[in-house]
Amino acid sequence: MAFVVLHLNEPGRQTSKIALAVDHIVSVREVADDAGTEIKLSDGTLINVTEPYQVIIDDLTESGLSVVGS
User: Are 10 and 66 in contact (CB under 8 A)?
Assistant: First the structure.
């Protein structure tokens, strides 16, 4: 199973990383006002990360995933 490692965008907290299983990513969208990128997982969880939208899409495409809603 492929994973992508992203930096969480959690205001007021120390920078941290999360590894997401590519198979569980349902959609990716840019968040307004340069707040980062929002990723929706198959269980409905929303995760905000600091990586730019296009960087994430490129990484997922390289992993062979077709992202719905992106």
Answer: no
